[in-house]
Amino acid sequence: MTGDPTQDPAAETPDEGSLPVDVPTSDEGSDRPATDTAGHLLTAGLTIGNRVVVRYRLEDGSQARATDFIGELVARNDDFLIVDTKKQRVKLIRADVIAAKDVPPPASRPGPAHERVGADDLEVLMAKGWVAPDRAGLGDWVLRSAGGFTGRANSALVVGDPSLPIDKAIDYVERWYAERDAAPLFQLPGEPGFAVADVPAGAALLERGYVAGGGRADWDKVLVMTGLASAVPALTTESAPVTADAKLSPEWLMTYGRSRSVVPGVTEAVLTGSDGQLFLSVRDETTRQLVGIARLAIHPGWAGLFGLWVDPAHRRRGIASTIVSAAAMVARENAMPAIYLQVSSANTDGVAFWQSLGFGVHHDYTYLARPSA
Length: 373
What we know:
By secondary structure, the protein is of the alpha+beta class. It is built from ten helices and 18 strands.
């Protein structure tokens, strides 16, 4: 079977279904149900919404024994996978899968790993590293709401095709936020130094009275910086010990709350909403209090750094650099060669810090809001 084209995965795969833990490597001669196959085990770890590659067994008599499907995994149930490839949407029998894994966004330009991905693809990836509890899609646009906690989690990400004419798409977004008693906010990415008016959606928003930056200097121009994990200076014997926890602890959250306003319940949901994350921290040796923290989002091929903060009384001691070095070590050891982060261009000290560790500007984005918001 080469993969059947399909148009309505929701109708055919309404629920992901439960997956057994004890899965044999073969169902030959077994009384186990068909869902207990090696193909089911291989596809159980795939992430819906991610780009995946699936090696698929072909029917007997085909010229080749197998073929690969690459695209977005849009649905899965006990029996099938639905994958959107460049050519078509296909339905694959899970029992006929030979190999499968999540993969990074496709390379669209030459260069090292952190420079090959286009701005839109990287924005979509980063949105999966900072996930709002309330979100929806409008074509390629991503609508997010999180009770006012951070601009990223409360804005419409304007990438690709919204599947509607621009004016109608903006109308839809405005209604979506009005239903949530929130002011509409748009996140518009572009190449470094891009002009908002040169982007069709940006020009349409300006005509409606939206303002780049929304009246906030830190929102006017945000830099997305990327770098190679291998280029970040390594930890040394003099480096402070760094702890990496998979779970968000109350102590880490309280320390995070010292650097910015939090929304109880919502903040925890955003911080723990990615497919994988680590909470890094450094303690003062005397007081045993946390004096430095950061969050590391985990993606196929990429790591994302969020919320790096050091207690003011402990700055200029290399704690921030140590945490980044520890994050880079985790990335190197887990096949994540590229790292991304976001920093406001108004934060000149922050930009200089990241540049000193080997990071460079990948692209920019700005927020657009009405001044009254």
